[in-house]
Specification:
Blueprint lengths: L24 E5 L3 H7 L4 H22 L3 E8 L7 H24 L2 E6 L7 H13 L6 E9 L1 H15 L9 H4 L13 E4 L18 E4 L9 H12 L9 H7 L1
Parallel strand pairs: 1-2, 1-5, 2-4, 3-4, 5-6
Helix pairs in contact: 1-2, 2-3, 3-4
Bound molecules: 3-methylbut-3-enyl trihydrogen diphosphate (2 copies) and magnesium ion.
């Protein structure tokens, strides 16, 4: 093999996922709640309250379509910059939803996890999160992850720091396979499909590492209006993509 095509000594790639018509993992930036409310001359927070119904609906749609992982961006590490009243409302909404929805999640065989820097949440909220995760720990129909006080940069840094604390002076370099289990969602397949509602076309510090090979779907639909039709459109768009993972189109055709 010519030197320029040989693999570097520690090359590690997650296995190419099997070609699938339905994504195994969908990650959504639930954006547009504030604009939904403002268009109706309501306070922004009314949009957040309404957005909760779309969370429930998205989880149900994943169960119906056989999507096994759903990760929702609920509150970014940058959202603390919002007006204190709005932050306070969002915290209460999240806490209330944790308390109210857990029975339903258990009934639907959903496993809940919350990813993000919990240290900034109140002790009561931290306890509610731990309890909800424990009660749903055996769910196997859907892995529902809620990203709250989450940032993709924070995630990568916390993974590096965990490695550093586990082995402060390794006598070798660290590689992807060392970092992966320390990252949030490292035990799940990476997102196949990224959806952002609300019309913006940016990641806003969501899953920076994990989205390396996701298909991106942006829709103008505001999150409170994200329904079965909008979900189906995203799945249709996904089916039309050719996922090459670095290979050529001809290689994919030959492998079929
Ligand atoms: C997304 O909706 C929800 C959160 C960030 C918590 P927004 O509140 O960002 O809604 P817009 O983008 O202002 O319409
Ligand atoms: C991203 O939405 C975070 C969530 C949906 C939770 P934002 O509305 O905060 O993103 P920016 O500020 O427009 O990039
Ligand atoms: Mg927004």
């Amino acid at each position: 093999m010519p030197a320029h095509t040989s693999a570097p000594p520690h090359q590690f790639h997650r296995a190419i996922p099997p070609a699938a018509t339905v994504p195994r993992h969908i990650a959504i930036v639930m954006d547009g709640n504030g604009r939904w409310a403002q268009r109706r001359h309501l306070p922004r927070v009314a949009g957040h309250a309404r957005g909760l119904a779309s969370v429930r609906r998205a989880a149900e749609l994943c169960l119906t379509h056989g999507v096994s992982c759903l990760t929702l961006f609920a509150f970014s590490s940058e959202n603390w910059r919002r007006p204190p009243d709005e932050v306070d409302f969002l915290m209460k909404l999240f806490h209330g939803a944790l308390d109210r929805e857990v029975d339903e999640m258990v009934r639907h065989d959903i496993r809940l996890r919350v990813i993000g820097n919990r240290a900034r949440f109140s002790p009561r909220m931290q306890a509610a999160i731990a309890e909800a995760e424990a009660r749903t720990a055996h769910g196997s129909a859907l892995n529902l992850s809620i990203a709250a006080d989450y940032g993709g940069r924070w995630d990568i840094l916390q993974a590096v720091n965990r490695l550093r604390h586990a082995d402060p002076a390794p006598d070798r370099d660290w590689h992807e396979e060392d970092l992966l289990p320390q990252l949030c969602l490292g035990d799940l397949p990476e997102p196949d499909l990224f959806i952002r509602t609300g019309g913006e076309q940016r990641i806003s510090n969501f899953l920076l590492w994990q989205l390396a090979y996701a298909e991106f779907h942006f829709t103008d639909c505001l999150w409170p209006e994200f329904d079965a039709h909008a979900f189906a459109s995203a799945l249709t768009a996904f089916r039309q993509r050719e996922r090459r993972f670095g290979r050529t189109s001809a290689q994919l055709t030959a492998a079929r």
